[in-house]
Design goal:
By secondary structure, the protein is α+β, with helices and mostly antiparallel strands. It contains nine helices and seven strands. It comes from Asanoa hainanensis.
Length: 233
């Protein structure tokens, strides 16, 4: 089972603009490519910043308003007013850009997007050169994996971690929902099996129908000092 990372789902053919690209050209590019943001790069394709639709909309939002900074105006509002008066990419972009690497896990990429309040991340190599871009939609594409692939990965991880045979635990996957059934020796093993099945990339939910021989998670169930289930000796 492979660990899914950013390079598995990112878009590699990325539309970009230079720092000198003019406002109208940026709007035309985004409309033509049907994208909502575009990285700004230098001649070596190092990422300088990102321009989103929000950056461009400040010109519409603040049309007709004076450009001078107002008394007690916040930093964000002042930045919006500055972008409303901008005409080229280097003045419009949000910088520095929040980026990620091709080897970043999908979980970490999603957490970065949430923390930084961004909808996509330019993907850069170790030298800062742009190699792709990953969006929220790209991250969600993991949940489109075929059920057969999910079942294979769940069985693989169960057999590797617990050394269980497929005859001991039955795995059914429908629309990304994994249902586990069968019987294992310990309650802790059943609990852990459900947990690791849920960690497989693309699994939506796990229905735990596993039963167990004895409850090693219940201290009342064990004789003090013996570690043996009561009623079995």
């Amino acid at each position: 089972m492979k660990a899914w990372k950013v390079h598995h789902v990112m878009t590699r053919n990325v539309s970009t603009v230079a720092g000198s690209t003019r406002y109208r050209e940026i709007v035309e590019l985004m409309a033509d490519k049907k994208i909502s943001a575009v990285p700004v790069v230098d001649d070596a394709r190092r990422v300088l910043g990102v321009i989103s639709e929000a950056d461009l909309l400040h010109k519409v939002e603040l049309v007709g308003e004076p450009h001078q900074r107002r008394l007690f105006e916040g930093r964000r509002r002042h930045a919006a007013r500055t972008k409303a008066d901008a005409s080229v990419a280097r003045e419009l972009m949000t910088a520095p850009a929040v980026t990620t690497s091709p080897e970043t896990s999908l979980v970490r990429a999603a957490r970065v997007m949430e923390r930084e309040h961004v909808k996509r991340l330019p993907v850069t190599d170790d030298d800062g050169h742009l190699v792709g871009i990953v969006s929220r939609r790209d991250l969600l594409s993991i949940y489109l994996r075929p059920d057969a692939d999910l079942r294979r990965d769940v069985l693989e991880v169960l057999e590797r971690i617990f050394s269980v045979e497929s005859s001991e635990v039955d795995v059914i996957v429908a629309d990304g929902v994994v249902t586990l059934s069968g019987r294992v020796e310990r309650h802790s093993a059943a609990q852990l099996a459900a947990y690791v099945a849920g960690q497989v990339s693309g699994v939506v939910h796990v229905v735990d129908g596993l039963t167990f021989e004895f409850d090693d998670l219940n201290p009342v169930y064990l004789k003090p000092g013996l570690g043996s289930p009561t009623g079995l000796l």
